[in-house]
Amino acid sequence: MTVQTSRLIGQAAATPRNGDAAQHSVPDWRHQAACRDQDRDLFFPAGKTGPYLKQIQRAKAVCQTCPVMQECRAWALDNREMHGIFGGMDETERQKLLRRTRRIAAPRTDRKWVQILWNRLPEYQALVAQGLSVSEIARGMETTVQTVNNVQRALEERALELAS
């Protein structure tokens, strides 16, 4: 049976697609959400300045009392929800968190800079030892300045991890 679940805040009721009335709801964290009985508009302010700041604060205050705040936040992050207050965070806060998380997440092995670290590190180190600039290293390795910067950042992070 395929179930279509509403994405409204706090609304966990689902509608069976095949007409099976016996399966009329999907139990999940939204049943326990503190926002379930709140006005939905509270969590979707029309702006981020002036009078909307108080609305945002009120919405976040409801989130702080919620027993499933972490689940709500995780859902919003997983689904890249770009509007509204979820899990005590507005869209700007969620975007910043996602950017930070992407930077520290395990690198994808198909990235050029990861391949340089794994396969061409001695070549990179030799160019650095010559005192070449980032753009000269990039030309020497037939890659981009951004890739070289990523290699440098990864090596610096690795050095910091080893030092601690």
Molecular structure report:
[4Fe-4S] cluster binds at residues 35, 63, 66, 72. Its cofactor is [4Fe-4S] cluster. Residues 1-27 are annotated as: Disordered. It holds the Pfam family Whib. Residues 34-96 form the 4Fe-4S Wbl-type domain. There is one protein chain. This protein is mostly helical and 164 residues long. It folds into two domains: 3-104, no CATH class; 112-163. The protein is built from seven helices and two strands. The protein has a two-stranded antiparallel ribbon with strand order 1-2. Helix 4 crosses helix 7 (145-163) and helix 6 crosses helix 7 (145-163). The protein starts with a strand and ends with a helix. The relative contact order is 0.08. Mean pLDDT is 77; it is low at 1-26.
Topology of this protein?
Blueprint (H helix, E strand, L loop, with lengths): L2 E3 L8 E3 L34 H14 L4 H10 L12 H14 L7 H8 L1 H9 L4 H7 L4 H19 L1
Antiparallel strand pairs: 1-2
Helix pairs in contact: 4-7, 6-7
The domain tally reads: 2
Structural class: mainly alpha
Percentage of helical residues? 40-55%
Whole-Å distance between the termini? 52 Å
Radius of gyration over all CA atoms, rounded: 24 Å
Order of helices and strands: EEHHHHHHH
Which regions contain 5 or more consecutive residues with pLDDT less than 50? 1-26
Strand sequence of the main sheet, in spatial order? 1-2
Report the total helices.
7
Please provide the count of β strands. Answer: 2
User: What's the story with the biggest beta sheet?
Assistant: 2 strands, antiparallel
The coarse silhouette is elongated
Question: In what range is the share of β-strand residues?
Answer: under 5%
The overall pLDDT average reads: 77
Family: Belongs to the WhiB family.
Binding site for [4Fe-4S] cluster: 35, 63, 66, 72
InterPro entries: 4FE4S_WBL, Whib
Domain 4Fe-4S Wbl-type: 34-96
